[in-house]
Specification:
Layout lengths: L6 E3 L5 H12 L15 H13 L3 H9 L3 E6 L2 E8 L7 E6 L13 H5 L9 E6 L17 H14 L5 E5 L2 H12 L4 E6 L18 H16 L2 H8 L1 H10 L1 H9 L8 H14 L2 H12 L13 E6 L7 H7 L3 E7 L16 H4 L1 H16 L3 H15 L15 H20 L18 H17 L19 H22 L8 H14 L20 H8 L9
Parallel strand pairs: 4-5, 4-6, 6-7, 7-8, 8-9
Antiparallel strand pairs: 1-2, 2-3, 3-5
Helix pairs in contact: 5-6, 8-12, 9-10, 9-12, 10-11, 15-18, 16-18, 16-19, 17-18, 17-19, 19-20, 20-21
Length: 565
């Protein structure tokens, strides 16, 4: 069987199509104005239309797109368009990035540079494959039925093999958060990890599943219920009668703009919104794109056993809030779970700030992707576990001024100290600059918590990833200086894990310090702690002979395992 060729592609929309678009927008017929409770407002659509007519430059966007290598190929009878941007790094990890509706490949343009050619240079790098979903943009319109989550996942697995990638990661947003785990299910021997911004797992109906949900999870369910009652009409219509709506989307750019704008938050810049909508209009894929929902609603049954590929979540406040209890029922190997609030403003509950995180918060998303995949390939799983414990503790903080077991410091100060420690370890190994503040005199003032912590954890993980397990003298910022590799890594892990405990306990969370982690860290503590007494650790506390590993470690470092504020 002959494999269809990979053909170079350039976006080159005919000038006549652009002129026709302008004419249609200028002669559009407008409905009577109604309040926002009835849907997207005339005011919003008029502002976007004026931007489309007067300010948006398709040719400039086209040039930006054409600056990246693009290709088309035929898979399962349909033309598939994709960007393929390789890193200059020989150690780069292949990664397929998948968008959703009403997004497009536009979602990921801001992260191409940071992921392929990272700064600092020692950070993980990626070869990127960014396909347009079948029926979307230059991958459409589709001519055949059945292009939902599962058929698309199979096509992406075929695409990655066709490109010669026999080991790769999968990442996605929206529909991409459904497709990416399915790629891992289809090709678990090839997919090293799956990173998503939503894990769409819902209550099964079992009352026991709802018992003792945290306040945050209950709030997430309440927001989901609100979304279902107020914003879900698009899903119902797409799932039941997509072709009825397709007539309006094919005939009127104003209709396409208004329909798609309902899920582009008002906080988003107009150029981003219009670039996505214009791509749909100029490729005639407004109708074929929404059939994705119909296909998923009418697809035959597929395996429902939990996925097993290592999975990471980076969810953003304002967007769909995943609930770990439900997610772990559907995904058996969740190794990273992080929550961020990157909102700079909000237009209310309809705004869904953070949904397009690759555009809204690219630095935060890139750092999370880097750290997730670095943790999978790191020879130091103890450090990865300690970093994950620190992230977990930080994600659960509601009071940043709360006192902690750590001397006179509040939660913010402990976080600053913990981040500074990790940056200090990275700097010792790489020679890059260390923290620009004294970690032992933290100010207690931070404006961007995720932005502060993630780069430091990523830098430490990347630095230690370069350290051979056999290294006998790894530079550290400790008074002991250079240490054997296992001890140096253990020291960094000890710092992160213990401060994760400080933060969690201070804010009423369960301890993220597992017995296994504590047992692994206790020998490190006994080797390193004595010279650090008085400024890093308090004198050891006596405890019962039958202390568990976590309590023994905490007491040895001068912390009361039963501390309360």
């Amino acid at each position: 069987m002959t494999v269809p060729a990979l053909r170079p592609f350039r976006a080159e929309i005919a000038q006549s199509a652009l002129e026709d678009l302008q004419a249609r927008l200028r002669r559009a017929l407008w409905p009577d104005d109604l309040p926002a409770e009835y849907g997207v407002t005339n005011e919003r659509v008029r502002a976007l239309t004026e931007h489309w007519l007067e300010k948006f430059d398709w040719r400039a966007f086209e040039a930006r797109l054409n600056a990246y290598p693009q290709f088309v190929t035929e898979i399962d009878g349909e033309r598939i368009h994709f960007l393929h941007v390789r890193s200059s790094r020989a150690d780069a990890t292949p990664l397929v990035l998948t968008h959703g509706w009403p997004g497009s490949i536009v979602e990921y343009l801001d992260v191409i540079g940071p992921l392929t050619e990272p700064e600092p240079a020692e950070a993980p790098a990626f070869h990127l494959v960014i396909p347009s979903l079948p029926g979307f943009g230059f991958s459409g319109p589709t001519r055949s039925a059945g292009w939902g989550t599962h058929r698309t996942a199979a096509a992406w697995a075929e695409l990655m093999s066709r490109l010669g990638y026999e080991s790769y990661g999968a990442a996605g947003n929206d529909a991409g958060s459904m497709i990416s785990p399915e790629i891992g299910r289809l090709a678990p021997e090839k997919v090293v990890g799956v990173h998503v911004t939503q894990l769409f797992s819902f209550p099964s109906g079992d009352p026991a599943e709802m018992a003792d949900l945290s306040e945050a999870d209950q709030a997430g369910l309440a927001h989901l219920q609100w979304f279902y009652e107020n914003m879900f009409s698009f899903n119902t219509l797409h799932s039941q009668q997509p072709h009825t709506l397709a007539f309006a989307l094919a005939d009127s750019p104003l209709a396409l703009l208004a329909w798609n704008a309902q899920l582009f938050g008002e906080h988003l810049d107009a150029d981003f919104v219009i670039a996505n909508v214009a791509l749909y209009w100029l490729t005639g894929t407004g109708g074929s794109s929404i059939r994705f929902y119909y296909e998923d609603a009418h697809t035959p049954s597929h395996p429902s056993a939990p996925t097993t590929v290592p999975t990471g979540l980076a969810m953003f406040a304002g967007d769909f809030q995943s609930i770990r209890r439900f997610a772990e029922r559907d995904h058996a190997n969740i190794v990273s779970w992080n929550a961020y609030d990157a909102r700079s403003g909000s237009g209310g509950p309809r705004d869904a700030a953070g949904h397009y995180s690759a555009h809204e918060a690219p630095e935060t998303l890139v750092a999370d992707i880097r750290t997730f995949f670095a943790g999978l390939s790191s020879p130091w799983p103890l450090l990865a576990s300690a970093h994950e414990a620190l992230r977990s503790a930080v994600a659960g903080v509601t009071d940043w001024s709360a006192p902690t077991p750590c001397s006179e410091w509040n939660v913010t100060q402990v976080l600053q100290h913990a981040g500074g420690d990790q940056q200090g370890y990275a700097a010792s190994i790489t020679g890059e600059p260390g923290p620009d503040f004294n970690p032992f005199a933290p100010s207690g003032s931070l404006e961007d918590v995720p932005g502060f912590l993630e780069p430091k954890l990523a830098a430490a993980a990347a630095a230690f990833a370069t350290v051979s397990p056999d290294a006998s003298a790894v530079p550290t910022p400790l008074p002991q200086g250079a240490l054997p590799a296992a001890v140096a890594v253990g020291a960094a892990a000890l710092d992160a894990a213990v401060h994760a405990w400080d933060i969690a306990i201070a804010t009423g969370q369960e301890s993220p310090l597992t017995q296994e982690m504590a047992a692994a860290l206790l020998p490190v503590a006994k080797e390193l702690a004595e010279p650090l007494r008085g400024f890093a650790y308090a004198p050891a506390l006596a405890g019962p002979a039958d202390d568990d590993a976590a309590s023994e470690l905490l007491r040895y470092l001068g912390r009361d395992p039963k501390w309360t504020a």
